[in-house]
Amino acid sequence: MSQPSGRILLVANGAPPGRRIWAALAAEASQICCVDGGANTVRRLGVMPAAVFGDFDSVSPITRGALSAAEWVPAPDQEFTDLDKALCLLAGRGARNVSVAGGLGRRVDHSLSNISLLLKYRGRLSITFHTSIEDVFLLDGRWSFEARRGRRISVLPLFGQARVTLSGLQYPLEDEPLEMGKRESISNAALGGPASIVVSKAPVLVCVGRAARDAPVFAPVARA
After folding, report:
1. What is the pLDDT of residue 183?
2. Sequence ranges of the chain with CATH classification 3.40.50.10240
3. pLDDT tier for residue 223 given thresholds of 50, 70 and 90
4. How far apart (Å, rounded) are the C-alpha atoms in residues 82 and 52?
């Protein structure tokens, strides 16, 4: 694996994305890497990854042989998940912006644990999770984007009470408090054109829906 630069696409062992979103994510990536059993997904897609991270207990013998040209990076520490170890290794190699496919969607405990990694690597990595229907990331600050009318956008204050300003959406907010169990912003919708989310006090989880004609969106880019 060469020195990470640009966006890294990291394929985990959860529910894989559809081929259309896979193609869009791969086109944005400078390198493709795998987390353990995610190598099986990449092999089925006919792609040679730059590296595979993990303890390799979920990798099939067929995959191990087919991807022998990749860098295999052992990460056997059982105190941490394979995705956590992969993100740590990528951060240590200098990566800054990571897209994760297959990180959500099968087991609830795994999905929630993986979402918690957004907070763990806050300030070190800009991470976006991608499923077949949405893009998910932590936001602490400001995010501006162009969205077609009706595109679904939810803001969840999972990490503590946040103050949030929303503009360009059907239900705007102006520096208003959001807190789990009290008030969230679920299934808001873009008006079409420029929109923005501004967050202070605590970060939030942003979930952006994706219809067939929508390109994926990404967390604000982390600067070195």
Report:
1. 94
2. 7-131
3. low
4. 10
Rounded Cα–Cα distance for residues 164 and 175 (Å): 5
CATH topology of domain 139-209: Jelly Rolls (2.60.120)
CA 118 from centroid of its chain's CA atoms: 8
- Whether 218 and 97 have beta carbons less than 8 Å apart is answered as yes
Architecture in CATH of 7-131:
3-Layer(aba) Sandwich (3.40)
Q: What is the 3-state secondary structure (H, E, C) of the chain?
A: CCCCCCEEEEECCCCCCCHHHHHHHHHHCCEEEEECCHHHHHHHCCCCCCEEEECCCCCCHHHHHHCCCCEEEECCCCCCCHHHHHHHHHHHCCCCEEEEECCCCCCHHHHHHHHHHHHHCCCCCEEEEECCCEEEEEECCEEEEEECCCCEEEEECCCCCEEEEEECECCCEEEEEEECCCECEEEEEECCEEEEEEEECCCEEEEEECCCCCCCCCCCCCCC
Structure tokens at 148: 């077609």
Q: Is the pLDDT of residue 1 over 70?
A: no
pLDDT digit string, tens, across residues 35-56: 999 999 999 999 999 999 988 8
Residue 160: its pLDDT value, please? 94
The pLDDT assigned to 19 comes to 83
- What pLDDT, on the 0 to 100 scale, is given for residue 33? 96
pLDDT at 121: 96
